[in-house]
Design goal:
This is ParA family protein. With 269 residues, this protein is an alpha/beta fold. It contains eleven helices and seven strands. The model has no long low-confidence stretch (mean pLDDT 90).
């Protein structure tokens, strides 16, 4: 078993990136029965907060920044349930760049630290998901260098589309400059409101830009229940919960299809 590592990103904030990171990890672990590690690379720690709240975890003693400082991420893994583990983040992680510059001399050493520390863990998982801040930064650089695929989140608005375009351009830069071995898994639309004209137009433009095969046919629709989970944690009690879960299960199923196609193409090369 060697984990497929997927970074979830867009260079615009507030597009639903963290929710997608958490929920795809959750559904893979709890419904598909896969071994999953969610890595929170965002100092705001929103993914860590939502997972902890959902699992009834009240105390987080060690975070990803502790792991970087110790040179070992295994000691900061938080077990959430049988199939899901979390490497949590906290506000202290804002000092990541200063830590890198003080301890590593070259650009390549600085941007490959996460890859170096994640590689020994990959044999224990089927999937590793990485949630990153919406910035061109040491966080996103490390995540890109450590990942096999990127899932680009596209909220149905112009600035998000521009953020997705910038993300693809930056991936190309990382490939050219540092030989990053990462592929675009796809572009996942997150709708502001179902049936909205702007939403539909943005998805159509994304399809023209990235190609029909690269834009997910399943979308994350605007669901009030997803907002409620920020307060209550992830639930599966009533039909509103089940509807929200099904939205992400459909996305996970399409991800599986795309990953299978990538593997088939690679085996034919």
């Amino acid at each position: 078993m060697t984990a497929k590592t997927i970074v979830v990103g867009n260079f615009k904030g507030g597009v639903g990136k963290t929710k997608v990171s958490v929920m795809t990890s959750w559904e893979y672990a709890n419904v598909h029965n896969k071994k999953v590690l969610l890595v929170d690379m965002d100092p705001q720690g929103n993914a860590s907060t939502l997972i902890a709240r959902s699992a009834g975890i009240t105390e987080i003693n060690k975070t990803i920044f502790d792991g970087f400082q110790e040179g070992n991420l295994e000691n900061v893994i938080l077990n959430v349930n049988e199939n899901l583990d979390l490497i949590p983040a906290a506000v202290s992680f804002k000092n990541f760049s200063k830590f890198l510059y003080q301890n590593f001399k070259t650009d390549l050493e600085q941007i490959t630290l996460l890859k170096k520390l994640l590689d020994p863990l990959k044999e224990h998982y089927d999937y590793i998901f990485i949630d990153v801040p919406p910035t061109i930064s040491d966080y996103s650089d490390n995540a890109m260098m450590a990942s096999d695929y990127v899932l680009i989140i596209l909220q149905a608005q112009e600035l998000s589309l521009e953020g997705a375009e910038t993300y693809v351009s930056y991936l190309q830069f990382m490939h050219d400059e540092y030989e990053a071995e990462i592929q675009v898994l796809g572009v996942l639309p997150v709708l502001l409101r179902a049936g909205g004209r702007v939403d539909q137009t943005t998805v159509e433009r994304a399809t023209e830009l990235f190609g029909e095969d690269n834009v997910f046919s399943n979308v994350i629709k605007h669901l009030e229940r997803l907002k409620a989970w920020d307060v209550t944690g992830i639930k599966n009690i009533d039909h509103h919960d089940r509807k929200a879960h099904q939205t992400f299960l459909d996305v996970v199923n399409e991800m599986e299809e795309k990953l299978a196609r990538f593997e088939e193409e690679e085996s034919n090369v």
